[in-house]
Amino acid sequence: MSNDDALLLIVSSPSGAGKTTLTNALRASVPNLLFSVSHTTRKPRAGEVHGREYYFVERKEFERLVREDTFLEWAEVHGNLYGTSRAEIARASEARGLIFDVDHQGARQIKSTRPDAVAVFILPPSMRILEDRLRGRASEDEATVQKRYKVALQEIQHYGLFDYVMVNDDLNAAIEKLRSIFYAEECRRSRAARTAEALIAEGRGYGGTVPPREAP
Ligand code: ADP
Ligand code: 5GP
User: Fold this and answer.
1) Pocket of ligand 2 contains residue 82 by CB under 6 Å
2) What is the DSSP string of 146-200?
3) Given ligand 1 and candidates 21, 53, 121, which is best to mutate, with the most ligand atoms within 8 Å of its CB?
4) Cβ-proximal residues to 89 (8 Å cutoff; 6+ apart), any chain
5) Per the confidence metrics, is the pTM higher than 0.70?
6) Residue 61 backbone phi and psi in degrees, to 5
7) Rounded to an integer, what distance in angstroms lies between the CA atom of residue 102 and that of residue 34?
8) How many domains does the chain have?
9) CATH number of the domain that residue 118 is part of
10) Residues 48-93 pLDDT 10s
């Protein structure tokens, strides 16, 4: 069934603040909430699967896709190219919602074509904790950790682009906050209007609860 009211949820954060952890937890508890799988020229981390976390492609292939207008948005982040294909956003119509894990450039571009998208920014409790989390992930070398930490500071300066800004301190509390944003946004009048209008049409169609007037 096609769903024109599917929620487009952009989740951004400085690298290491926990958006992957939080979006995975949200998806585990909300059925039929899909993840937009981006293309990237970054090399896969241990455990990452082509087509699940990302479509991993060579730079030449990415540039060809750009020329072919495959992407709704794309950007260079940490020296690698990342992009959301138009095919991914089309998947939203088959789902309850679609999560985009993109940086501030991607958030801005998605918002400009889909102003109904909801953008959430996740902050670390402190810069010190962010550095610990980047290091704790143990999937990158020290130079990469340092590069990501520097970019994190720049990324935070773009918080003003976002509809919601939340701190990922206690993990369970943060999951609750993100879930609350999702449910509240799903109930937004503009998104629920179609359902309400369908009920009104249905009610009118067969007389609703108003009994037919008795003939005199
Ligand atoms: P991002 O996707 O934003 O780069 P990750 O979700 O990969 O961040 O999280 C970075 C690291 O921090 C991971 O090792 C993750 O397990 C850890 N982490 C995430 N959220 C919390 C939290 N609330 N408390 C402690 N550690 C966390
Ligand atoms: P990572 O390499 O840690 O998976 O992601 C690095 C950064 O790239 C993160 O800030 C992530 O949100 C961003 N990113 C991932 N996919 C996309 C995308 O398709 N477009 C944009 N603009 N950024 C992306």
Assistant:
1) yes
2) HHHHHHHHHHHTTGGG-SEEEE--SHHHHHHHHHHHHHHHHT-HHHHHHHHHHHH
3) 21
4) 8, 36, 72, 98, 110, 114
5) yes
6) -65, -40
7) 15
8) 1
9) 3.40.50.300
10) 999 999 999 999 999 999 999 999 999 999 889 999 999 999 999 8
